[in-house]
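Here is one record:
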Amino acid sequence: MRARNTVTIALAGSALAALAVLGWCAGPAAAASAPVLSGVSAGTTVSGTLDLRATVAGAPGRVEIGVDGKLRRAFDKSPYAYRWHTRAEANGTHSVTVRAFGPGDATPAVTRITVMVSNKTAYPAPLPFGKESMYAEFNQGDAATAANLLDDVWPARGHPLPRLGWP
């Protein structure tokens, strides 16, 4: 930003014109430079937890990190860091965006990359008797539990056994 010059002008009492002259003397505010994103590279396949960091030259007024067009974190000062838990995202293509606003800027400098999220999906082991198995403990129970089930008395894990009448 350039240094402010002292200018004395008489403009028939127009405060608006005086403000325009002062704005001209001050020059435009420094625009934010394009942010640099580290912690992930464009086109890569990612999983788990990533530490994303944005670096912006100069002194931006505000920096935002978003995923798929949704703001995840906004900063007014550095460090510009966001921990992205990719397990919370669906597997597939996602875009990570960093927007840096210079002081007084309405339009940000933007860096956007696209990555592929691929987290392993863990499924429990299937029960040995297929869909007839309601709970593993029923398949591995003892003869007393099986007899109780035939009499509509259900196991209740540390509570009194409930009798569920028919129907």
